[in-house]
Amino acid sequence: MPSLVMENRVNFLEREHMQDLAMASSYETAMEALSSLITQQRRGDISTLGVNYDKLGRMLKYLKILGLEEHIAGLKIIHVAGTKGKGSTCTFCEAILRECGFRTGLFISPHLIDVRERYRIDGFDISEEKFLQYFWDCWNQLKAMVTEDLPMPPLFQFLTILAYKIFVDVAIVEVGLGGKTDATNVINKPVVCGITSLGMDHTETLGDTISQIASHKAGIFKPQCRAFTSPQVSDAMDVLRNRAYELKIPLEIAAPLNNKSLDGLKLSLSGDHQFINAGLAISLCKCWLQSTGNWNELLLNGNQEVELPEAFKRGLSSARLFGRAQILYDSSANSNSSSELSKRSSGDLIFYLDGAHSPESMEVCARWFSNAVKENTSSFLSPQASSTSSPSSFYSSITVGNVKDLCGDADTCNEEENIEESNLISKKILIFNCMELREPQILLPRLLNICASSGTHFSKALFVPSMSTYTKVTSAASIIPSDIPAKNLSWQFKLQRIWEKIIHGKDISFEKNSKMDKPETLPPYEFLYEDASHCRPSDNHIACSTVIPSLPLTIRWLRDCVKQNPSLRLQVLVTGSLHLVGDVLKLLRR
Q1: Which positions ≥6 away from 32 have C-beta within 8 Å?
Q2: β-strand pairing of 348-353 with 326-329
Q3: Which of 42, 576, 199, 532 minimizes the C-alpha distance to 362?
Q4: CA separation for the pair 382, 53 (Å, rounded)
Q5: How far apart are CA 380 and CA 417, in angstroms?
Q6: How far apart are CA 267 and CA 92, in angstroms?
């Protein structure tokens, strides 16, 4: 009998393993199908789709094929556009309404590691099983109806259609690009619309003035639908008000959240700018609850004087959004147990991740980083701490209360760390890349100057190409090759030249055979300790920055650096691109 039980157990495990393999294979097949929907080789290229229908006209045709028109009309939607803070505002809204007891759906973009991050149901990324169920249902129905005039939808349109297929009750929808002609803007009757802070971004598509950009964003306003906006510069505000006036709808300015309203709790998303996003989220959620007849039920005895309901506070203090003002402690470089803190075998490697890529967001990133490196980080995350395959649970923050679990006795841990603090050599390192459509000659000086004004100075800058490509959708399980194929590094060298010009205040001319154009695979460890004052451009000695051919090599080199010197603390800011941030997250996860 025991042998029969064992045999049945083995058979069960084998079947389970085969099911997992089949699921993984099917998921990768879905990623390949999604990749086939990419119609542009890079952002800014002209779409190759037919012109018989405009974008929204095509979207309506697709929705009709799938029978989703009535379903969308029944969704209670919060629609959010803007330049900065769209994802944060939507994330706050989802957490607040979920804490109020509603079944929530959140659609945001882009994803960092896995496409399922774009779809959260009740606070969790959609499972692979459910994703595949909805994906193939939509895919097969649309594929069967493809014509020359109506081809398969491009990637973002398909992902948007999928969101409207998945969500069933409350939907918080982030605009992808602009607003007026965005694929999400097939919503006829949202409950409420919001506009986050506006700035200069996507100018090749939306226009090169703040007024033109605001006009696109205001395109999500609908008749008989209340609208809210974060505070804006006057030119942008005038455009938003004029559009609201044309539609005869009220447009209200949402005041930033007053920290005192949280009664001692902290916003879960870092940075002073998040109080602006939180203020807008509060206004949107309050309006949603009022419009759906749920506001009075939420308040004790219908007391309208309550400033911030407890459910709002819980949502604001628990919302999560990765790759924006996120701090990760890389424990793979330091395997010390709590009893060995006084015998360090490795230094500290701490990553500060923020996908800032516009001038305004780079300013916010610089202020956040400058403040963060000066504070005792109260929550670190070890990539080895979780065995789950879910990006959401993998990147859940470790709160102050859990530090004791990491250190044993928290008081002892803090005391020993303080003793060692004075012996640590702290270096601020920048890892940077951005798309070629960006303006690094604006982004890099803004980052450097704001950090410097706060007393934060970078020891070195590393310019590294991203791993992800614009032409392929990958998953969390996608294989990362040990040897990344050689890439054209001309863009990274251009970034380095811009950086060196900022440092030296003038253009630097390099000889034809300069190391600037032919970097060694990895710099020596001593590179970190060279002071910028030793940088002698006339001798082609570049001490301020370097180009490294790949991210895996960069992460490995940084880990080796702290292993070589137990007294070293590297505080690494990764910014300039959400793709870059996502790639770093994927590498740390492995």
Answers
A1: none
A2: antiparallel
A3: 576
A4: 49
A5: 14
A6: 10
Residue whose token pair is 């793979």: 332
| Greatest extent of the chain over all pairs of C-alpha atoms, in Å | 83
User: What does the block give as tokens for 53?
Assistant: 């229908």
Would you state the structure tokens that stand for residue 260, as one six-digit string?
A: 């005192």
- The mean pLDDT value for 137-141 works out to 97
User: What's the pLDDT tens digit per position in 300-356?
Assistant: 544 555 679 999 999 999 999 999 999 999 987 655 444 444 456 788 999 999 999
Q: Three-class SS of residue 72?
A: helix
The DSSP line for 319-384 is: ---TTSSEEEE-GGG----GGGTTS-SS-EEEEEE----SHHHHHHHHHHHHHHHHS--S----TT
**C-alpha to C-alpha distances, 351 to 328, 377, 383, 403, 585, nearest whole angstrom:** 5, 11, 12, 18, 10
Rounded CA-CA distance 446/232 in Å is 21
pLDDT tens figures, 364-380? 999 999 999 988 544 44
Average pLDDT over residues 426-434: 96
User: Which residue, among 461, 462, 460, 465, has the nearest Cα to 435 in the 3D structure?
Assistant: 465
- Written as six digits, the tokens of 61 are 């045709």
Q: pLDDT, tens digit, for every residue of 81-128?
A: 999 999 999 999 999 999 999 999 999 999 999 999 999 999 999 999
User: Could you give phi then psi for residue 370, rounded to 5 degrees?
Assistant: -60, -40
For strands 124-125 and 119-121, give the pairing.
antiparallel
The three-state secondary structure class of 317 is: coil
Q: In whole angstroms, give the CA distance from residue 301 to residue 139.
A: 49
- How many alpha carbons fall within 13 Å on the CB side of residue 43? 15
Asked if 357 and 435 count as a contact pair (C-beta separation under 8 A), the reply is: yes
Confidence of residue 387 (pLDDT cuts 50, 70, 90): very low
Mark residue 99 as left, alpha or beta (left: phi above 0; alpha: psi -120 to 50; beta: remaining). alpha
SS3 57: helix
**What is the Rg, in whole angstroms, of the alpha carbon atoms belonging to the chain?**
25
Residue with token string 């451009």: 537
pTM of the model: 0.84
| Residue corresponding to tokens 């969390």 | 476
Asked whether 405 and 423 are in contact (CB, 8 A), the reply is no
Q: Give whole-number Cα distances, 270 to 139, 204, 276, 380, 500, in Å.
A: 38, 30, 12, 14, 30
